[in-house]
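Retro notes (design track)

What went well: tokenization of the new backbones is finally stable.
What didn't: we kept losing track of which sequence belonged to which structure.
Fix going forward: every design gets posted as structure first, then sequence, in one message. First example under the new rule, 113 residues:
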């Protein structure tokens, strides 16, 4: 088990993400183990098009938008911020996105317990 990351499975000699081997063409349920959570896992639904489902304080479900380029500065320098779609993300980007959503969901659950 790796601290602060997704719960990984041993396959062969290496360690792989729980996203590995899943059919991302359909909705999936992924369990994420977070640091300080003991043996509890945060369950995250992953939409095949929009990515992990995040819960808001107003009890509304949504999707976190990720823009790898935070946008240009004043006077038009730099490119405008452009969101990156879930299907266009690489494996590492998807893992980081999933962990971030799991942490936010955990905090939201703790807030309203």
């Amino acid at each position: 088990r790796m601290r602060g990351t997704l719960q990984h499975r041993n396959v062969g000699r290496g360690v792989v993400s729980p996203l590995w081997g899943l059919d991302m063409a359909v909705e999936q349920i992924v369990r994420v183990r977070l640091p300080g959570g003991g043996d509890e896992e945060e369950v995250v639904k992953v939409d095949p098009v929009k990515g992990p489902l995040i819960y808001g304080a107003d009890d509304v479900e949504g999707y976190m938008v990720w823009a790898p380029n935070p946008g240009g500065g004043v006077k038009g320098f730099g490119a405008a911020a452009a969101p990156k779609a879930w299907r266009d993300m690489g494996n590492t980007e998807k893992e980081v996105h999933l962990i971030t959503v799991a942490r936010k969901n955990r905090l939201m659950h703790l807030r309203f317990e």
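Added context from the reviewer: Confidence is low (pLDDT under 50) at residues 1-15.
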